Amino acid sequence: QVRKLIALLKKRKEGFYSDIAKYIAKSSRTSIAVDLSRIAGFGDDVVVPGKVLGDGKIAKAGNVYALNFSKSAKEKIIKAGGKCHSIETMLAENKKARIVV
């Protein structure tokens, strides 16, 4: 599934999507995990090319696109008024967001 996502991202000719593909294609040893406290400062739409963890607090959230979400992170994002989406959804909607790593 991840390989298909990387291929879809690379098909897009924009640098934004290829940057996300580069982060996702890294080895599992260097995979990205981001805490909610790091996302909190970005506001509206953010994309995490890895897993969102539930450590920290978030007062206001927008749309968060990621490969995976921990259970507590999902709950906190929804409670803060945001929505959790997969990166595939971002591709389908042709949206762009700030990359958080």
Question: Could you walk me through the main structural features you see in this protein, from its secondary elements to its overall organization?
Answer:
The chain has helices spanning 2-11, 15-24, 36-39, 71-79, 87-93, and strands spanning 33-35, 46-53, 63-69, 83-86, 98-99. By secondary structure, it is of the alpha/beta class. Strands 1, 2, 3, 4 and 5 form a 5-stranded parallel beta sheet that branches. Helix 1 (2-11) runs antiparallel to helix 2. The relative contact order is 0.21. The model has no long low-confidence stretch (mean pLDDT 91).
Q: Could you give a short description of this structure?
A:
It contains five helices and five strands, in the order H-H-E-H-E-E-H-E-H-E.
Instruction: Report how far the terminal alpha carbons are from each other.
Output: 21 Å
Uncertain ranges: none
Number of helices: 5
Structural class: alpha/beta
Strand content: 15-25%
Mean pLDDT metric: 91
The helix/strand series, from N terminus to C terminus, equals HHEHEEHEHE
Number of strands: 5
**Estimated helix fraction:** 25-40%
- Our Rg estimate from Cα atoms comes to 13 Å
What about the largest sheet?
5 strands, parallel
Shape: globular
Helix and strand topology:
Elements: H1 2-11, H2 15-24, E1 33-35, H3 36-39, E2 46-53, E3 63-69, H4 71-79, E4 83-86, H5 87-93, E5 98-99
Parallel strand pairs: 1-2, 2-3, 2-5, 3-4
Helix pairs in contact: 1-2
Give the key terms.
5 helices, about 40% helix
